[in-house]
Amino acid sequence: MKIFLSFVRKEFRHVIRDKRSLIILVGLPVAMMLLFGFALSSEVKNSNIAILDNSRDETTHTLIDRLDQSQYFSVKEILHSEKEIEAIFKKGEVRLVVIFPANFQENLLHIQKAQVRLVGDASDPNTSNIIINYASGVIRSYQDELFGLQKMPYQIELDTRMLYNPQLKSSYNFVPGVMTLILMLLGAMMTSVAIVKEKEMGTMEILLVSPMKPLMVVFSKAVPYLALCFFDVILILIMAVYILDMPIAGSLPLLLAESLLFILTTLSLGLLVSAIVDTQQVAMFISLVGFLMPALIFSGFMFPIENMPIPMQVISNIVPTKWYYSIVRAIMVKGLGFAFVYKQTLILLGMTLLFLGLAVKKFKVRLE
Amino acid sequence: MSGVSIKNITKTYEKGTVLALDNISLEVAPGELFGLIGPDGAGKTTLFRILTTLLIPDKGKATVAGFDVVTDYEDIRKIVGYMPGKFSLYQDLSIEENLNFFATVFKTTFEENYHLIEDIYVQIEPFKKRLAGELSGGMKQKLALCCALIHEPKVLFLDEPTTGVDPVSRKEFWDMLDRLKARGITIVVSTPYMDEASRCDRIALIQKGKILEVNTLEKIIKKNRQPLFAIKAPNRYKLIKDIRAFENTNSCFAFGEDNHVSFKNGSEGMPQLLNYLNEKGYENLSHKEVEPDIEDTFIKLMLETENHD
Fold first, then answer.
1. Domain count, chain A
2. How far is A210 from chain B (nearest CA, A)?
3. Integer Cα distance of A5 and B309 in angstroms
4. pLDDT tens per residue across span A228-267
5. Same domain as B114, residue B233
6. Residue B283 domain boundaries
7. Which chain A residue's Cα is nearest to B78?
8. Do β-strands B33-37 and B80-83 pair in parallel, antiparallel, or remain unpaired?
9. Residues B88, A205: C-beta atoms closer than 8 Å
10. B72: distance to nearest CA of chain A, Å?
11. ipTM score for this prediction
């Protein structure tokens, strides 16, 4: 126990005295949360749009005003001919052009049918989809006002509700994602690099030629990182709740316990890497390419797994981040209890034991 | 019972293509200060790593304090102190922090065994808050020795402890080893510096994975004694070339300002060489017979093994 505490103290000193690891440990989660929270938001606010109004009547003017006043759009330019549309998209100044054909109001009032054309810049398909949806929404609500007094003969009303995240806030998506990525990165990379560094520096030689059991050496090295990763989980959760206004819907103790399990998974991955490789560079490379990339692609955080081809869906099952991501979303966003995540929990537990077993098996009590 | 015994140890690297140790046998008596003398790449570090259980020999058997280096590695790790050739402490921890950490790893405390390292520690104590990475070479080695001693080992393995250390610190370091030896600790130390051989009870000369000779320094020199001459002339480089071209020259090496020369026909070679050199037009030649020292002996033994192969 005393040995273990002295390892913890030493490991904290290493981290505190090494600016790089301190930046990774504290700076990275803070930076990622702020970036995703404020800069890289997939919500659309104040998108520039252009208008081509061939009708210029009362109705079109009202509609244009409505679009401009909504928080989603600001009218940047009024176009005068069809030819200008392509030019303005090419300049990249607007994301959407709203086109009113001639005689818009007349058609609307007399044949009760008028067309609006929405032209989006689909070079960024996700954003243009969202924008077109918003624009349709603004136009539809105006239409409802207009016909509100008159009785339509038949009408199907769509009443859409977005469950768990009614405002479609992107933080509900990225906070679990950031937690997954950070833990994967810190747990696997920092642990393996820290242990391999001892091999490179030669200190492992001295630690091996000591009364300590060799396995105890690496375990004692890994445990401080458990604490550091757990600190990051709490840091991210505090930022999520107090800065990004994202409440934790489910049980906090359950969320913390599951996070602890996932940290153990990543630590055992780190131990496995450190048992196999001999240089910090290789350890870093494996962690980035072997763990972080799959974590990005296969956790469902950036790309929906259901849309992937079957082989990739199968592969995604062996990526531990996928399971943790789904656990965090279930607890944090949907507020579900353990009964709904026990399957994922068991899978993570199994993976942890497997990695740990392999790491112990691969571990060398000597230099070769 | 704290001696070291090595029998027919062979070790290869890279799947047997690189021969590091070639059928080596050695005995180190309990309480002895034993030196492994040889140039870089001779196999000293490999031997240390086998004795400290970090490597497994391909062939042969070795014991440290009666424990087998392969099967009883856990016992050996409890009773030896090891100072690797490369400075292997935590550069980002201070002297104090390094010592306390290693004391705990070795299941003891700094205070409990302070008496063991006191002599050495007082020399670095003024800098105890300084990070190990910022220490001078000599201080680093003293700290590393403290760390290797903190658990009162029975056998101490020091791999090139004085490499990269200034002459004064080197002398101090050997003085410390004498004091440790007086405590009864068996010490195996390696060095590439021939002049340090005189500080050891016995030495083994090692070259290219082979032991050339094991004995006390005096006996090794005496046994390999041959007439040796120091020759000096202004144009030194040309002189070496000409001496080596002479038919009866056995060996010729630069030694300080002189060239040390031995002959295939012993002392008779010297007047013959002088004639030969006079014919070549040398002036201001100075020459005298000298007593071979350890370096001369090492070169002689090295050449013999090379010719033998």
1. 2
2. 5
3. 56
4. 899 999 999 999 999 888 889 999 999 999 999 999 999 9
5. no
6. 226-291
7. A211
8. unpaired
9. yes
10. 12
11. 0.86
